[in-house]
## 1
Amino acid sequence: MRRTVVLMAVMLLTASLVPMASAQEEGVILRIGLTQDWETLNPTSGFAVSEYEIWNIHYATLTNKAADDFSVTPGLAESWVVSDDGLTVTYTLREGLAWSDGEPLTAEDIAWNINTGRDQGWDNMYSTVQNLDAVAIDDRTVEVTSAVPDPKLPTLDVYLVPRHIWEPIATDYDTATQYDASDFVGSGPFVVTEFNKGQSVVMEANPEFYGWEGDPPYDGIVFQLFENPDAMVAALQQGQLDAIHGFPAGSAGALSADPDIAVVAGQQGGFDEIAVNGGAVEGQPHPALLDLEVRRAIGFAMDREAVIEDLWFGLASPLETMSPSADPKWLPEIPEENRFTYDPERANQILDDAGYLDTDGDGVREMPDGTNPIVLRHAVNTDGDLAGPIGDLFAGWMEDIGIGVTLESYDQDALFGVIVDGTYDTFWWGWVPFVDPDPMLSYFTEAELGNYNDANWFDPQFDALYLEQKEELDPDRRVEIVHEMLTILHDAAVYFPFYLGPDLQAYRTDTFEGWVRQPAGVGPVMFSNSSPSYVLLTPVDGAGAGAGGVNWVLIGGVAAAVVVVGLLIAVRRRGTAEERE
Amino acid sequence: MTSIAMQRRKATAGRVWRQFRSSRQGMIGLSVLAVFVIVALAAPLLADIRELNPVFARAQGNPQWASPDQFGPLGTDYIRRSVWAQFVWGSRVSLFVGLAATVLTIFIGSVVGIVSGFIGGKTDGALMRLTEWFLVIPFLPLAIVLASILGRSVWNIIFVIGITSWPSTARLVRAQVLTVKQRLFVDRARSLGAGGGHIVGHHILPNVSGLILANATLAVPISILTETSLSFLGLGDPGAASWGKTLEEAFVNGAMVRNAWWYFLPAGLGILAVVLAFTLIGRTLEEIANPRLSGR
């Protein structure tokens, strides 16, 4: 026992020293705190939001996304021409492009990335490039042809890796996706110089980046990982950080009260949901869940407004259907009478009418034939922020309509396995979609059963519409199709989104200025789809490199930790002396 | 013969109780523990179990993060649940897990220790190597790994604590068995034709039981602390309100930053008091069983 306590005290000590170390970087540094670790910086295979943020900065893309509305804007390509049939796009690159190591960045690099990503099936590129073929016409011209009509073109926003380094390494899917990306050669405004997993990512300004007019306005960015979000909030308040991402909703009030801190609740389509096992493949759910009426009753029994009010302090907004995109235009309007508005009496009525009665008087309903009490296995994701309270709430809601709940805890990896196996009845998790709705929609098709289809449900009509929207070039018609798909999913009552959850971010207004929200007005200022803020930020005059002052709280904390460690060691010595006698 | 033994044992119990009563620290520990046992047993009378249900709490109109003067007697938490109800019902889980895990620990430890010490030879060697193997495994990581593999339920936590904390008991009991085994009365019994089972049951066990009891009372606080640590790390039973779970939720939801002392203080002080009570009782029993310790 004692040893672990000593260990914890030592961990506490080192943890509190880390922010000090990073503050010793030279020049004007933008310091950002976050709570999600990086697994890998390899852009072909990673999937965490924290990793996307690094790639957004480290790699320039062929086309860029406007900060306001995600519309396509020039990136490495300064212009492009779309052929009459819409299948071929010819991009012209800017003049004098180069990688951060000085090597020229040419059309060959672009074509190699698209063709290799397609052939080797790089996870992060494949859905974009699977039907594309690229040919380098000359150093500055690349021609991209799609085998099928593709509504996403001319947007081409995959991360492009340096061919001169990757070509010998990426010989197949395994070598490409398992490479540790330690070359740190990029093309974006800042490039990685240090990656300390579990601690920080250090980036410095890339003078080769095409977007700088004159010298970069500041010298680098440090992303600092925090285990404890409260410590991160405190670091921002004390001026050790310039911005933070993902702070707890409960801290919003205290942060807003600081005149030098701006708080952003950024919407980019992210949502959390309770999913019901639709029973499409083996690992069957409770038989009652196969009945649409039971699933509808569950929908009416959940007080989603209470979650927005109590757990998000009103910062999240109501959501009726699964949100497939960062752009709200894809969300259909669900008629008032079809919405699952909190109404436990109606839920009870539906269950009574459908014949699910509590025949033995124990407070839990049975199947219509009087057997098999309805007790649901609700999976609690122990890595999820709100999974704990939602589990308690869900048990309470179900109790009110005579459905029992057993809570089963899994960490994120285990939960993914449970979902694939189908050995659950309900769970709570969330998604952050891309700009194009296609990937999120694909997850609810028959082809994704046993993989990403975490509703374990499919509908042939939904699948047919999915294929239709995938090749629909008329933007308005495509929106209509997507609306129809989402309404089908809503009415099937297998996937209950609770709210559009904001990314809670805060930044100091006295160190850097020029933060932009993506999309305009509602989005986050960083960790967004293409994270445009970093190029636009400038240091506030006279602010220098942030607070260099002595941090008495930190010193006090370290001193306390040292005393505690000393005491523990002393106690331990005495302990062993006693045992020895 | 049996009745004489019975009488003698009764007399010993009476002597132990007299000595215990005269010990101040022992009586303090006992009375603190008694209070918590009463709280745990009387939980349904002290707090409505529905107060642990956040849906019920919201329907009742409980405020969020209310301090004790806004919502008696101990305020509310981040999802409007009464902290008093969590404290009262949490005492049940914490005490139950602490005691049940100790019973398991002591049972495994005593069996291994007695078998190993009494039989000796190769059995002893094998069992002691096993014990050492468990001793050198870092305790908390092993408990964490086991808890995550087995899933999170109260019974699994008891099992995890039991399976990871028996080695020190086994070594202590073995050492005591080795000395008792050498005594004359064991030789005497053996020369009168007593079998191994008889000797263990009638001569060895009575002589190590004092040590086992003292060791058990000292193992309870460790079990309670382990349950708290595991729950605090999010490995507890998600459906059971324990003090560790209260502390975890208070920490995760920023009770420290909000200065919501009423949220974490009751559970923290509860653990402190129960652990202290068991330690005081255990020390007292240890002193009675081994008078050389007194005065230290």
## 2
Amino acid sequence: MKLKSHFKRLLAVLSLLILSLSGANAGVTNIIPFGPGGESDVTARMQQPYYKSIYNDDIVVQYKPGGGGSVGWSSLNSEKGDGSVIMGVNLPHIIMQPIAKGEKAGYKTEDVNVFSFFHYTPDAILVEASSPYQSLKDLLDYAKQNPGKLTFSGSGTYSANHLLIISLNKKAKVKTTYVPFKGTGAAVQALLGKQVLAEAGYSTVAAKQGKKVRMLAVASEERLPAFPNVPTFKELGYNIVSGAYRGYALPKSASKATVKEWSDRIMKINSDPAFIKQMEDNAFVVVNIGHKDVKKFMKQQQKANKAIAKELGLIK
Amino acid sequence: MTNIFADFLSSLSLINLGLAFSGVLAGIIIGALPGLSATMAVAILVPFTFALEPSSGLIVLGAIYTGAIFGGSWSAILINTPGTPSAVATTFDGYPMAKNGNGDLAMSISCMSSFIGGLVGVICLALFAPPLASVSLKFGPTEYFWLAILGLTLISTLAEGDNIKSLIGACIGLLMSMIGVAVVGGDIRMTWNISFLNSGIEIVSAMIGLFCIPVILDLTSMKGKHLSDSETPKNLRLKESFLIVFKKKFEAVRGALIGTFIGILPGAGGSIASIVSYGEAKRASKNKDNFGKGEPEGLIASETANNATVGGGFIPTLCLGIPGTPPDAVILGALLVQGIRTGDTLFTQQSSIVYTFIFGLFLATIIMLPLGLLMGRYAYKSIIKIPKEVLIPIIIFLTIIGSYSIQNNILNVYFMFFFGLVGWILNRAGFKASPIVLGLVLGQIAEQGFVQAYIIGNAQDNILANYFARPISIILVIFILMGLFLPALKKIYNRRKNAQTN
């Protein structure tokens, strides 16, 4: 008898567990192809309450990390196309991975049915607070006098951070050293610990780190509301507008109506002043690229990224 | 000071107590199930915490995290499978203890050790967070490289039996750690055109396969019960375990301090902490030969260290905004969504949230002790009483769910079985799983640190100085040399001495 009751209790625990796991499938699913805690996750979390209050439905965030997102993107088109599943997409990732890895990326850029981009984190050059370099000019002057000695930490290879340094090297005619780290956290750690002289990061790093870092230039069109004193690269004479764009895609099987509906939903959240404020406070830049504009935008980005890939010798 | 006292009282509110209790409870269960890691437990719960007050939400997350790291020791002890990666070293002595009929003793010791570790970690977090955070910044790529090498030299210490086979196992692990897209350079290595492998071998599913499947296969093929029951009836053997832990109080605190220190190094994590602590314990112990055969001291070393990483890991997370461990990354994201800025200002401008949180963590650790002891006894009895025919399918079921849920991907399940088969064959040939896993975990850290240090050294025109002329590096190198050559020197010395006396 004793044995049976043990077994029953164990079964009860197990079924509870399964129930709670399957219960997570209510509402619509937003698959983030990265682990929890990153920018894609955080911004998806920020959208959740707005979606709930507008549509009275839940967006459930799931994670399918791996391969810098490629594991998720290569499985996107096998998901249901009825609008119950969307997946986060990132630029330059979905363009650069197929260029850099070819077949091995597991998907082609055209396979990813992007319907909108809702924000981006502009690339930025940052130094540690006690650094002697007060401006981008100071930093680049040092690089000119000491070719190769200016070290930048950044997240990943062929990432937005990496591409920024390649563009900057070319446009400012300098030679610098880019040191890739695994993730933004490790790159910031290297900067704060003075392992490197500067960081190629995102504007969000400056928002998170506050007075510990100094942002010297930001790769946005206009100055950021949260950082009115930080000049853009454009103002400084380098035509660089870059960063990591984040948006959403549907499986290819989704109908035109579904695509439009989802694009409208994301854009509607984007128009909420409270949401915009929350994003801007954390140095995210809200952009409104809906399903009508997304194709044109992707073409522009592909052209720009291909030029850099040529620079890198990834394509001829 | 009065403020801090008020924060303490607010953390003691009935709802917070209830939340801490249920958090620890849920954490222990999730941690005990192989594959459902602390990271996942925290990630699942994050959306629910948004409905709570920020500080209450944080208390739940901290409680779950604390519970899960402890819970990981259960499956390590009972079925030789680390419930979370942090419990790798717990299998070394925990499972042999259970095999010898001391499973209940092991469960109680593990709970007390986790309690001590958790407490030391939280105290360090409360008292020394800002200075310790600045220590973590002294660790650059070079230091991470040497730390990983130090961990690898411990393989010779950990190895039960054949040293050569352990080294071969570690090399297999190192090779496996290189699979996938290199962080530095972006080269695609050894993926055989399987895009799933671009991100490298997923460590948790590999671990479940390597540790758990051989146990299941042996269990199926052999007669007799899974674990033999202990002679003593259900009294938790509280007194006995307390005496053991009390006798080893210095060792316990040493383990906790090692755990806290490694916890403050972002990216190192509980698995390295417990392995380093275990290695140091064995090196310093008088009962060296008993390690790996069911020595409580080894269990204490591992469990104090991994729970200390909870408090330790929050130090860079809260002070620098750099997650100390993977679960910290999730909690950091939750903080951001709630509009709480980490970093310098957190301890001054939003100090009440921080201190409520730290007290909550403290509370969770204290709740964990009685709860863990009670639940542990129940879990142990269940595993002992359940017939093998029922136990085996349940474990297999859990390994499948666990490895699937890591990335919501069926391929992880296939890989888990693949590693299980490989692990079983290697096990038969005398290769243990732990050196392989050690190579897999440390290989990535060592490689990235080495290459980054090389690039930086190259930019400074002084590569050698960047490896050898940094203060912390020098200390680490001395430790490595000691670990490598002291045993050999001792042997030579003893031989000489014997020759003289003869």
